């Protein structure tokens, strides 16, 4: 407010009283805050009014076979969910408010709170906090199972590759190099070309396919040895 509403004198910034006529200046921000508080208190419906609003629903029996929302019977094929204040609702209405499932011990709303969410057009169904945690825990277990399965398959493949690979008879290492085949007119190049690299081990496996002895050198211990077909 820049001018005194009583005498029209231009006010000093932050003035509480008019320096000319002494009129008390109302703070606009205080006025706005008061209006917001009044609006909030008006829009927040008192508990007594809500109890009157849902008097019919609250008058229904706390019976697991009766849905407190519409008074309908909860059949054998429809799940009965108990709310925190002992009223029951059917699975159909529960799914309109919450996603997923609920278990004993979950923090569920009262009937009035449930009805407010059910009748709120802006309400978006979501999981209960406990159900969210259960889903997160299940996903974590599933991820671990898949990781362990991949690890087990890789270990199995490595064991098979190690079993089929050429190994040094002295130290058991697969870090071996093919040297030659003692059969006449058999070249080292052809022998290497006919070898097969194993997946996880990286050593040469298999032999040349020719009769005779193959000579190998172990890079780990320096041993030189021969293999047969």
UniProtKB/TrEMBL annotation:
InterPro entries: Zinc_ribbon_dom (IPR026870). Residues 3-25 form the Zinc-ribbon domain. Residues 128-155 form a coiled coil. It comes from the Bacteria. The keyword Coiled coil applies. Keywords: Coiled coil. The keyword Coiled coil applies. This is Zinc-ribbon domain-containing protein. It comes from Lapidilactobacillus dextrinicus DSM 20335. The lineage of its organism: Bacteria, Bacillati, Bacillota, Bacilli, Lactobacillales.
């Amino acid at each position: 407010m820049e001018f005194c509403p009583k005498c029209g004198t231009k006010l000093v910034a932050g003035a509480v009283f008019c320096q000319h006529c002494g009129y008390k200046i109302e703070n606009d921000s205080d006025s706005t805050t008061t209006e917001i508080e009044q609006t909030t208190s008006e829009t927040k419906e008192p508990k007594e009014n809500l109890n009157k609003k849902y008097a019919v629903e609250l008058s229904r029996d706390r019976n697991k076979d009766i849905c407190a929302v519409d008074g309908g019977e909860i059949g054998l094929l429809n799940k009965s969910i108990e709310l925190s204040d002992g009223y029951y609702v059917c699975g159909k209405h529960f799914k309109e408010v919450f996603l997923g499932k609920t278990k004993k011990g979950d923090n569920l709303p009262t009937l009035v709170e449930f009805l407010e969410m059910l009748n709120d057009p802006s309400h978006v169904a979501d999981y209960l906090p406990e159900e969210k945690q259960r889903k997160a825990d299940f996903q974590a277990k599933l991820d671990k199972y898949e990781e362990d399965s991949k690890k087990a398959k890789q270990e199995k493949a490595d064991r098979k590759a190690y079993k089929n690979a050429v190994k040094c008879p002295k130290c058991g290492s697969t870090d071996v190099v093919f040297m030659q085949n003692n059969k006449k007119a058999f070249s080292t190049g052809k022998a290497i070309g006919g070898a097969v690299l194993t997946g996880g081990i990286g050593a040469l496996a298999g032999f040349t396919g020719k009769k005779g002895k193959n000579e190998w050198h172990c890079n780990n211990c320096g041993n030189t040895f021969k293999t047969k077909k």
